[in-house]
Amino acid sequence: MFSYLSSTTILLCILISYNSVHGWGSDGHALVASIAQTFLTDESSTFVRNHLPWYTSGNISMLSSWPDFILYPDTNPVDYLNWQWSKQLHFVDTKDWACVYDREADCNWSSGQQCVDGSIQNYTKRLADSQQDDVQRQEALKFLVHFIGDAHQPLHAGFQGDRGGNSIRGHFFSKQTNLHSLWDTVMIERRITQDFHSQPALYLEYLLKQMKTQYAQNISDWTNCSSSDESRYLACATLWIAEDAKLNCDLVYRDENNQPMSVSKEFELGQTYYNTRMPIVEQRLIQGGVRLGAVINKIVQTVGVNNKSKKFSFGATALIVAIVSQILLLILLLNYRFISKKESTPKRSSANQQQSKSFSTV
Ligand SMILES: [Zn+2]
Q1: Which of 9, 22, 44, 6 is nearest to 294 (CA)?
Q2: 39 C-alpha vs ligand 1 centroid, how far in Å?
Q3: d(CA 263, CA 221)
Q4: Which of 34, 260, 310, 319 makes a 20 to 30 Å CA pair with 253?
Q5: 270-320: per-residue pLDDT in tens?
Q6: Of 278, 18, 22, 20, whose CA–CA distance to 173 is shortest?
Q7: Sheet of strand 267-269: strand arrangement
């Protein structure tokens, strides 16, 4: 029990400290999740509370970067190697300047690893499936929250030839970076620092206001998806990735003079790129949040809030065994103390009697 509590506390500390140091990686995912949270129905809020660890109190943003943390030795020194299989699930590579997402060719459907499209389909189904045990469904929820965020960062569907913009290097306001990081962290970090007193909570407030005003009329369109079996839970990742592919050709991979960027030439970007691309970053954060909320609501609406896992997980069983054995041990200890107290009490009283006797004789 102690080790369970202490490992939870350590994880919480890591998450809090990581959040305060890094930008979009965790800020962006937390913003998407927080926007989604405001969309949840009462039933969905109960459902996520039931499917997340107790210390989150049902706050989906708290573990929205868990799928990134588990991958690296600095955030998961104990078993980061065991999670490497999940690396492929965060993105999909599209063909250079094809400007479309070719679902069959781009996502590696034949391998078990697939891509962000396949992972969204897979974890949506797993979250809705009561045949999965509690641990598997909790994992599914954490992955789904993260991957729907990833699917809205255009460079998570970037070009194959430059590894989603990671190989395109250059400068942003004279600081060295690469195109992928620019979209993942650098632009949003600048926005929060310059315009929101370095407080992500104030930025969230602003995005929610934008959602309710500027984008209010788009919400039903964004959550509408009529394609194939993806539409069952509104998890239309194919559509979302197609939007990324178009954005990449129109804006992401073009410099301030509208020229294509590539690995062969370092970019020099500043105010013009920032002013024109930041609204796209914000729209994608809001879209991701709205769609994530809609997917969770749809799952809960379809399977029911009391859709408990039928299987009992090994983890839960181990925890209950540990708690029961601790309680038994406590009862035994209390019992032992009670018995030994009982045995020692008459001795003391007979000594007292002897003492009082000796007093009386004096
Ligand atoms: Zn990711």
Answers
A1: 44
A2: 22
A3: 36
A4: 34
A5: 999 999 999 999 999 999 999 999 999 999 999 987 776 665 555 555 554
A6: 278
A7: 175-178, 169-172, 267-269
